[in-house]
Every structure is written in C-alpha cells, then in structure tokens.
Amino acid sequence: MAYSIGIDVGGTKVAAGVLDERGRRVDEIKYPSDPTDSEAMFELLVSIIQTFQSQYDISGAGVALPSFIDKAQRYVYTTANLNWNDEPLVDRLEQRLGLPILLDNDANAAGWAEFSFGAGRGHDDGLMLTIGTGVGGAVILNGELYRGGFGLAGEPGHMRLVPGGRPCGCGARGCLEQYASGSALTRAARELADSDNPLGAGLAAIQAKHGQLTGGLIHQALRDGDPGAASVIVTTGDYVGQGIASIASIIDPEVVVIGGGVAATGELFYSAIVDGYRNNLPSAGKRPELSISLAELGNAAGWIGAADLIRRRLDD
User: What are the phi and psi torsion angles at 65 (to 5°)?
Assistant: First the structure.
C-alpha cells in the first residue's frame, strides 16, 4: 500500500501526518518550530519526511505553507516570517529526498481537506474561510481548488471592505482581515476598554488586572456574560458575514466553511456571521442562500489537505 505525507507549517509548530491510499489517517505528529529560521525549517521538513519514509511506503509529500505559491506548486513567491522569496523549494526537497513533492498555501490545503473529508464534503462549489490572526481562504469550484492565473487566488482577507480604512500588512487599507480576524477582535476589545463607553467597563477591569487584553481573556469574558465582549464578537462576526455576501456575488458558493481559532468562539459569533451575510446579500430574499458551516477537522486540516493533494496528483 502506498502512503502520502502531509506537512502543515504553522507559526509555532509543524503538524504532519500520513494518509493511506484511500485518504484515511494512519499517523500524525507535531513538532515545535522556529518560523523565522529558513534553513532550520528546511531541515525539519527533510527530517519529518525521512522519518515517515522509514516507517511507510511513501509515494509523495505535500507541504502547506502560509505563503504565496506559484500555480505549478513548485516554488514560494514569498512567505510569512521565513526568508523564502522566489524559493525553488520543491526542487531542493526533491533533490534531497528523491520523492515527489507538492507545495500549497496552508488555507488552500485546509479548505481542500474540509471539502474532501469535513464540513464541505458533498459540495462542488464552496469557500473556506480560516479566521485566526488574519483571514485566509480557499475557493472550490466544480470540485477543484481554484488557483487563479498566477496561483494566488483565495485570499479573501485582503479583499477591500472599508475604503480608506485601517492599514493592512499587505500594504493596502481597509482589508477584510483588519475587521474580521482574531487580531481585529482583540483590537476592537482594547479600543472599547479604553473608551468612555460604559459597555467597555468589564473589559477595562480585566485589562487593568492583567495588563492587556488577549483573545483568551476576551473569550472568557464572553463566557462570563460580559456585554462588551459580546459586542465585539458580534461586530467581528458581522464583518465576516459582509465579506461572505460580497464573495457570494462573484463565485456563488453552495456552502462556506468557517475554520480557524476564532471560529471556536461559539454560537454568538456564528449567528453574527449569518446575520451579516443575510443583511448584506445583494437581492436577498430573491435568490438561493448558501449555508454556513463550522469546520470539522480542526488543526489537522492543513496536513490532511496537503497529503491528499499530492496523493490525488500521483493517482492522475
């Protein structure tokens, strides 16, 4: 039996695993990592693949990165933290390992996993949104990942939501992820805590006690019934829904799968997303509505998607 490896490079850890020829999980492992040391990361990728090769009959490996990947999925245009710019990463790995390698954006890999094995299965046209520090995404059209003309499709976090709005790390202003991400949620809570609005009194007290508000403290405040925390959760979810409504006008997805750490916030966040979508959908009430589902595969989605993508490529 031939097996495929998937590796998902994250900000503080690397998750990896093995799928069998039917796409079933047979092994997985996590490693801490330094996301700023490019050569150490390269050697870690090599080590992970060699470790699995010593245990399984491996046919190929897929690597998911928080990066812009070329359409042929062979080199990295640029990546967060790591000093990989126009990096021929597939050539380097294949020369070192003698094994077929595939690269993909981490959100693409997670989206592919969710539409193959998770919340999006059974749908041929959909969107995955990963809401964490930023907003990533993957577009599935006619049952295939849509990559665009240069391989860079599926970046809804950098869709313009507010003209002339908050500056974004991408160089533009008003991007969706500046209003609809975990970072945006934390910033909104801190701004509310620092304001004179009575709604922020509870958050201000938490901030005074702990020195600064974090995502975990905000979520705990929400669980404790704090109205300020609930307010920023609703506002952030509404922005997510607005983004979905705009995207729906272009690609007409059947389903949107919401993943990432912020998605675990709970029913209030989910309801705000649905309301934001419905309140901003063009021709609302006169067209079919998509469904919005929470992701099912959690942190394993990236490596599962990467492993399945190389498995399917080798089967073609």
Answer: -130, 150
**Which tens digits make up the pLDDT trace of 5-31?**
999 998 778 999 999 998 899 999 999
**Angle between the 215-223 and 182-194 helix axes, to the nearest 10 degrees?**
70
- How far is Cα of residue 315 from the mean position of the Cα atoms in its chain? 26
pLDDT of residue 91 exceeding 90: yes
Exposure b/e, 300-309, CB count within 10 A at least 16 = b: bbbbbbbbbb
SS3 117: helix
Which residues have C-beta within 8 Å of that of residue 55, sequence separation ≥ 6? 27
Q: In this model, does residue 261 exceed pLDDT 90?
A: no
pLDDT in tens, 111-158: 999 999 999 999 999 999 999 888 989 999 999 999 999 988 988 999
pLDDT of 240 strictly over 80: yes
Length of the chain: 316
Q: How far is CA 148 from CA 5, 57, 92, 123, 140, in A?
A: 25, 33, 25, 20, 11
Q: Which residue has the tokens 């990942």?
A: 145
Instruction: Tell me phi and psi for residue 105, to 5 degrees.
Output: -65, 145
Beta bridge partners of 63: 7, 103
Burial of residue 119 (number of CB atoms within 10 Å: 0-12, 13-18, 19+): buried
H or E element: which one contains 112? helix 106-117
245 neighbors 238 (Cβ within 8 angstroms)? no
pLDDT in tens, 180-214: 999 999 999 999 999 999 999 999 999 999 999 99
Distance CA 295, CA 153 (A): 20
Side-chain-facing half-sphere of 148: CA atoms under 13 Å: 14
* One-letter amino acid for residue 268 of the chain: L
